[in-house]
Design goal:
Largest sheet: 9 strands, mixed
Order of helices and strands: EHEEEEHEHEEE
Number of helices: 3
Radius of gyration: 14 Å
Length: 126
Amino acid sequence: MKFHHIGIACKNIDEEIASIAKIHTITKQSPTFFDKEQNAHLVLLTLSDGTQIELISGKQVETLLKKNITYYHMCFEVDDINAEIDRLVNGGAFLISPPKPAILFDHREVAFLNVSYGMIELLNSK
């Protein structure tokens, strides 16, 4: 597993981008997409040091935001998403959302799991 990005919940993507830009230099920004599979608006930012931040807004994160929680997940890129899910579940993880295509990542499959330190997203490298 290789770290890919951190997911941050927000109420308004444009306002959050403006706030992040006050702290960090944003060198790349994807278009904002609405992902029907996740029922959320998404954008991926790349900072000057190469760190990537995914901003998520919409029904998917409303409950977190009502509790003032903005941390959503960490994403790891994997070569074989199904093998990695099996490995993690056998180690005690809980599968929240099975693999499905993600528009933000050119329809590569993503899956969400709960592990000891929170929710992670797996992104298939293929």
